[in-house]
Amino acid sequence: MTTSVCDPEQLQRLYSAHHGWLRLWLRRQLGCSEQAADLAQDTFLRILARERELNLLREPRAYLATIARGLLINHWRRQAIERAYLEALARQPEAVAGSPQEQAEVVETLLRVDAMLARLPQKVRTAFLLSQLDGLGYACIAERLGVSERMVKKYMAQAMLHCLTCCAE
To answer: Distance of CA 59 to CAs 32, 86, 151, Å?
Structure first.
């Protein structure tokens, strides 16, 4: 039987003892106190969702930093995708831009596609992107990756199956 994580006293002690340190650590990483405060709160929200005895933590700061580091990576990835989308949008005619709501939906979709592609092995992802984004044929992709054309076909089948599986979820 799993023990509930939400022992309010344990969480309060952890929060009181380490929240200030975590905010400062995040502020150094981000250069922004508001974003640091948000990610510090998100870190403690993640802890609430996990099934772990907080009183068993030997290194609470290391535990908090690990969770916060994952949130930072997600934050930076989101910023990079959003920035790339906005740069591409700026090169388009104004009518293409869409409403702020539509732009937010496009960014969310791009984040889901990025997450889906990140779960593919490197060569499979590269083959898929060279085919879909650059329009390269299998022979050219095989030459670039240093593999056989047959291997590229396997990579593409793996990528397509992965895409279908993710869409079905």
So the answer is: 26, 40, 46
